[in-house]
From TrEMBL, chain A:
Tree of life domain: Bacteria
Residue ranges constituting the MEDS domain according to the UniProt record: 13-157
Keywords: Kinase, Serine/threonine-protein kinase, Transferase
Pfam family, one: MEDS
Protein name: Sensor histidine kinase
Length: 333, 139
């Protein structure tokens, strides 16, 4: 990132908070929240359930003035945190400085989720560049592997711990985004269907039927099966419109999840594709946004040689709608 | 029930029996010749309440027919009623087109969705249709 020396300072502030125990957690977050309330700023706390309770108890009555969000549900898919949590809150308060505690990474995230989490943390810097906002991201130094703390130093321009606040010497946005854009090999025995130019008629109907049949075979049912069917259709339509006119969809079951994998010849050059809430009055593609909002995990590998978008649905997962419904509404403000 | 524009887009007889009665389709008014629908989507004129019944799937393949039907329905007098019990699929753009049509309505007019599939209600929620006059009449 080249910033001219004369450029005005970016009002966006994105510190990582390294904590070792509940006392350090509260010492790092509660004054941050109270200072925001005292300054009249809208404040949200989006952290996993247990930590949410800690902060709520410590705030007492003041908790009623804070938007409290269970990140383990709203942020189940790291790729939807920007549109459905961070911007959904910030966009409700246009022109005002907002303050958010956002904890997207916790012990227990799978390896595939973790890469998406790091990518998400890096993309926050792009999504909020130039906006008057501060997003404080707590990291559990005791519970997370050392690698996660090293990554946090690369995704946050500022670091905070018991010793105070300092600039991160390791901040490396472009390097992180490049490292997260990694190949996504598929299992050899995945079910496979190619569609589009040179293949069958009614490509999207065929893709929907293929996706629904295999997802049902893996154990997905009801509303979530319908959600996955929609996403399969959206991603295949993207192939027809932007991915060279054809593509391949693959499906398999992996660790209690149904996996939908769509590959085509397209190249996604916008790193925030699918992560921008779009006002309903505005035309434009929303397929990737809806994919992020409805999925339990999305991974993307894209380049000049083509794009693979991999979507995971938990077979025992909950309907995400109650946790993501603010994404579109806030964009209309 | 003369709603110019809607009749013009009425394309295929309904395949199933039952559901709301619909206006006869055999005598389209003067104007452009009836178009043929792409396979997979039929848009029928129904009455009452005045509106269109959609049977089939709305995606990239059938989008233009859907868009024209919505535009014509929104241009008629009164509220717009979409009978959607026979809608087996609608994609994100197809759902957005409903909000786009709703945005063109004069004040006081609304689009009523009769028996929309759950995925349509989900997508309308996700894309933020709240400020628009789209009413789910019978979930």
């Amino acid at each position: 990132m080249n910033v001219a020396p004369s450029a005005p300072a970016d009002p966006f502030d994105h510190p990582a908070l390294f904590y070792r125990d509940a006392a350090e957690y509260l010492a790092g977050t509660v004054p941050f929240v109270r200072d925001g309330l005292a300054a009249g700023e809208p404040v949200a706390v989006a952290v996993p359930e247990g930590n949410l309770g800690l902060i709520r108890d410590a705030l007492g009555d003041a908790a009623r003035e804070v938007r409290m969000i269970d990140m383990s549900r709203a942020g189940r898919n790291p790729g939807r945190i920007i549109p459905a949590v961070l911007r959904a809150f910030a966009d409700l308060h246009p022109g005002r400085r907002v303050r958010i505690v956002g904890e997207p990474i916790w012990p227990g995230r799978s390896a595939a989720e973790y890469v998406a989490c790091v990518q998400h943390e890096a993309l926050i810097n792009l999504a909020f560049a130039g906006r008057d906002a501060v997003i404080l991201c707590p990291y559990d130094v005791g519970g997370l592997p050392d690698e996660a703390i090293e990554d946090a130093r690369m995704t946050h321009p500022v670091l905070v711990d018991g010793a105070g606040r300092r600039r991160s010497a390791d901040y490396a946005l472009e390097r992180v985004l490049s490292a997260c854009n990694r190949p996504l090999p598929h299992p050899a025995d995945a079910a496979e269907l190619s569609y589009g130019a040179g293949f069958c008629d009614d490509p999207l109907g065929r893709v929907r039927a293929f996706a629904a049949a295999h997802a049902a075979r893996f154990g997905l049912s009801g509303d979530r099966l319908e959600d996955l069917r929609l996403i399969a259709s959206e991603l295949a339509a993207n192939s027809l419109d932007h991915g060279g006119g054809s593509g391949t969809v693959r499906m398999w079951r992996e660790d209690g999840r149904a996996v939908l994998d769509v590959s085509d010849a397209g190249h996604i050059t916008d790193p925030l594709a699918g992560r921008r809430p779009t006002p309903v009055y505005q035309p434009g593609s929303r397929g990737l946004l809806v994919t992020q909002l409805l999925s339990d995990l999305v991974r993307v590998h894209t380049g000049r040689d083509g794009t693979t978008i991999r979507v995971y649905f938990d077979l025992d997962g909950a309907d995400p709608l109650p946790y993501v419904r603010g994404a579109g509404d806030a964009a209309n403000v | 029930m003369p709603i110019p524009g809607v009749v013009r887009l009425t394309i295929q007889p309904r395949a199933d029996s039952g559901g709301p009665p619909r206006a006869p389709l055999s005598a389209p008014p003067s104007g452009p010749a009836p178009r043929s629908a792409p396979p997979g989507l039929a848009v029928n004129l129904v009455d009452p309440p005045a509106g269109i019944e959609v049977v089939g799937e709305i995606d990239r393949t059938t989008r233009d027919t859907w868009s024209e039907a919505l535009t014509a329905a929104a241009a008629g007098a009164g509220d717009v009623h979409l009978h959607l019990a026979g809608l087996r699929f609608i994609d994100v753009r197809g759902a957005w087109l409903i909000t786009d049509a709703a945005g063109t309505l004069p004040p006081g007019k609304r689009i009523f969705l009769h028996h929309p599939p759950r995925i349509l209600r989900t997508v309308l929620t996700l894309i933020g249709s709240d400020p628009l006059p789209v009413v789910v009449e019978s979930p």
